Amino acid sequence: MVEPAYTVTSDSETTGEEKSSTFPEIAIGIDIGTSQCSVAVWNGSQVELLKNTRNQKIMKSYVTFKDNIPSGGVSSQLSHEDEMLSGATIFNMKRLIGRVDTDPVVHACKNLPFLVQTLDIGVRPFIAALVNNMWRSTTPEEVLAIFLVELRAMAEAQLKRRIRNVVLTVPVSFSRFQLTRIERACAMAGLHVLRLMPEPTAVALLYGQQQQQTSHENMGSGTEKIALIFSMGAGYCDVAVTATAGGVSQIKALAGSTIGGEDLLQNMMHHLLPNSENLFKNHGVKEIKQMGLLRVATQDAIRQLSSQTIVQVDVDLGDGLKICKAVNREEFEEVNRKVFEKCESLIIQCLQDAKVEVEEVNDVIIVGGCSYIPRVKNLVTNVCKGKELYKGMNPLEAAVCGAAVEGAIASGVNDPFGNLDLLTIQATPLAIGIRADGNKFVPVIPRDTTMPARKELVFTTTHDNQTEALILVYEGEGEKAEENHLLGYFKIMGIPAAPKGVPEINVCMDIDAANVLRVLAGVVMPGSRQPAIPVMEVRMPTVDDGHGWCAEALNRTYGATLDLVTLQKKA
Amino acid sequence: MDALTLSSSVNISKPFHFLTLSKKQQRERHPRTQFGVSCRGRKELGGGVEDNLYKVLSLSPKSATTDDIKKAYRSMALRYHPDVCQDCSKKEESTRMFVQLNAAYQTLSNPRLRAEYDCELGLRSEKIGVGDETWRYIWQNQLAELKRRSHIRMAQNQGSWGSRIRPQNIN
Predict the structure, then answer these.
(1) Is B131 part of the contact surface with chain A (CB cutoff 8 Å)?
(2) Who among A247, A248, A452 is closest to B82 (CB)?
(3) Which InterPro entries would you find in this protein's record (chain B) (predicted)?
(4) Residues A311, A183 share a domain
(5) Are the Cβ atoms of B82 and A513 closer than 8 angstroms?
(6) In this predicted model, what pLDDT tens digit does every residue of A307-328 receive, in sequence order?
């Protein structure tokens, strides 16, 4: 196989609309899950899932570096499942992308066969694959780019045209920094990201289309329907509450967390072999093999527990280490009680944020690989007071189908039968604001704000004759600034000297339909109509790496000398 | 002709019926209808969101129900959301109008905010109960804000106006 050619493009590659195009190129939808991926496209009358050369619609998300030439799960076929766990294969890339080495999710990945090393100081983790007895380093972005190149080649071969524009699904809990890493991997693969869609939002769009078609057939008047969408895959758990009528889906609330099937698996592995973390710490060849065997056996057990209540686990790890144990479903559920409780609290939080009562929900939709787990179905059903689950969606295909529909809409496709007379009004999953009022996080755009959005807040100086202000932009839900993700920073200079509290510093945040965030800041003196200095406009995020260190350095250098406080303006 | 018909929509008692017709016309004669929509958009922009939120949603202030507001929001969203905007050059204007539409919907879909807004418009002045409740709410908010500012001032060691004046008087 030829080495896949991917290019390192400039960081100025941007999400959004193409400047000009001679003909409409329909964007494809891609759903790269933590463990599985799929590609779909609008074929003129409906969504079609693309298949690889082995006629598979759903493919494994991994890249193997054996034989020195990397190849992904799209075209490559591993001879057996153990080979994926030999250390030469990188998977869980979606879980690792855009994270620093103090992240618990990164630490959980250290139990995987490939090498993940952390120094616990807030930098990128070191990731390597075992190639010909050597650890060869790589990055999650590179692994994802290699994988995307293969996806693109597959799509181009099948559709017989050049593929450039894509709509990708992303977890709700992804920060803007992680989104930029996804975009960067796409750029390396020669793909232009039209939209990054939270997974339940993509499902909501598909649901809206189905309601629209039902409405057409029944000549309905388009009654409003409230849907609860629960999505749980190998790496992430997402919830959304949407209101749909007449083809318009409003995202009323979103909630997301970094828990998924991988956590269930790791908890079970630890349950079967309590000392496994110490045993596998050295990452020697023997330990890697043992780790892989345990992982395969545990995966099989969990899968079987979806259809039977008890399963026998028999695995010989070598060196006299054997596991021979009967595991029942209650045991599995007890070992993972905290994971399931977290899922339940996400649903409750999302309903509260949407200001929707459980009784108002018309349809309950469960998607994602974990939707086959009985306990997951039960907990969603229980929260929703026993309401029957929505049928009419394939749990593994719903998100990618929604992404393909969005790709068609965003590409300007017009369907004569009205199947694309759809609109998803998206909402921000996380709050965005600045550091002010001491060390507080002051949201300018709150969570679940409808997008596109433009909101402003007025601040003022904290010191007499303060002529500069440091704007630190954060994203998240924590009350203190450093509990959130630092997106970027800039300094306002030339504030007219005046007693503290007099200058009015207007901070405006603008998110466009392509989810591009711009922060604008201007200074107005009371009684004056003209801005005191030119308005600054900064596109975020600007912090590319080591945001933990960056925030620390800024605080150490400037302290509170350039701080602002909120000014409540009464019109 | 289209411009006249569209501009007169403000006075039509059943705006949704008109919107339906407009949608059909939009399919039949795409270029002209689009021009008409643009004209109307400009007129609304001229009015500004602060003047009347009901006009942004093409609603009558007195007779609009909650369902009317929801339906109007969806119809307007299908027209102005940048995702459904066909003409790239109008995407920025489309986004700006959608943001205004959201602001109007946020206010009018919340019963308390709508009642407050109606009072500002001078509507429903005959409903003393609603007005009374609203103004009590506003007054309490203002009082809380004054207290908050007072605490901030005290925390900054400025004290009250009186405490600042007294030393000057001594001098």
Answers:
(1) no
(2) A452
(3) DnaJ_C/III_chloroplastic, DnaJ_domain, DnaJ_domain_CS, J_dom_sf
(4) no
(5) yes
(6) 888 888 888 888 787 788 888 8
The answer to whether residue A186 scores a pLDDT higher than 90 is yes
The closest of A202, A194, A192 to A31, measured between CA atoms, is: A202
- Residue A340: pLDDT band by 50, 70, 90 thresholds? very high
Looking at chain B, which residue has its C-alpha nearest residue A568?
A: B145
Window 2-31 of A, Cβ < 8 Å to B: 17
Residue B46 Cα to chain centre, angstroms: 14
The verdict on residue A78 lying in a domain is yes
Alpha-carbon span B166 to B164, nearest angstrom: 6
pLDDT at A83 over 80: no
Position A9 in a domain:
no
* A449 residue type, one letter: T
Q: Chain A within 8 Å of B109 (Cβ-Cβ)?
A: no
Chain B residues with CB under 8 Å of A452 CB are: 82, 95, 98-99
pLDDT score for B171: 45
pLDDT at A222: 62
Cis check: omega of the bond before A541, within 30 degrees of 0 = yes
The nearest alpha carbon in chain A to B105 belongs to: A450
* Alpha carbon distance A366, A369 (integer Å): 10
CA distances from A1 to A87, B9, B155 (A): 21, 65, 70
Whole-angstrom Cα distance, residue A212 to residue A419? Answer: 8
Least confident among A39-43, B14-18, B76-80? B14-18
- A31 neighbors A206 (Cβ within 8 angstroms): no
pLDDT of residue A571 exceeding 50, the answer is no
Q: Helix, strand, or coil here: A92? A: coil
Residue A198 has pLDDT above 90, yes or no: yes
- Res A347: pLDDT: 92
B-chain residues within 8 Å CB-CB of A17? 88, 91
Domain that holds residue A221: 203-258+338-393+422-427
**What's the Cα-to-Cα distance from B55 to each of A43, A458, B6, B61, B162, rounded to whole Å?**
40, 28, 13, 9, 48
Chain B interface test: which of A454, A464, A568, A569 (most B C-beta within 10 Å): A454
pLDDT classification of B107: cutoffs 50, 70, 90: confident
The CATH number linked to A55 is 3.30.420.40
* Domain annotation covers residue A136: yes
Q: Are residues A238 and A387 in the same domain?
A: yes
Q: Give B38 or A478, the one with higher predicted confidence.
A: A478
Token representation of residue A448: 């679940």
Structural domains present in chain B: 51-153 (1.10.287.110)
Chain A residues touching residue B57 (CB < 8 angstroms): none
Same domain, A450 and A546: yes
> Is A421 part of the contact surface with chain B (CB cutoff 8 Å)?
yes
CB environment A170-209: b (16+ within 10 A), e (fewer): bbbbbbbbbbbbbbbbbbbbbbbbbbbbbbbbbbbbbbbb
* Residue A1 domain-assigned (yes or no): no
A149 lies in the same domain as A177: yes
Please tell me the distance from the alpha carbon of residue A357 to that of residue A384, in angstroms, as a whole number. Answer: 9
Distance CA B91, CA B113 (A): 30
pLDDT at A136: 73
Please tell me the distance in Å from A343's CA to the nearest CA on chain B.
30
- Say what the pLDDT of residue B50 is: 42
Q: How far apart are CA A396 and CA B71, in angstroms?
A: 33
Distance from CA of A345 to the nearest CA of B (A): 26
Q: Give me chain B's average pLDDT, please.
A: 59
Cα(A518)–Cα(A365) distance, integer angstroms: 34
Mean pLDDT lowest among A80-89, B57-66, B123-132:
B123-132
Q: Is B90 near chain A, with CB under 8 Å?
A: no
Mean pLDDT of A274-297: 80
Which helix H or strand E contains B40, and what residues bound it?
helix B30-47
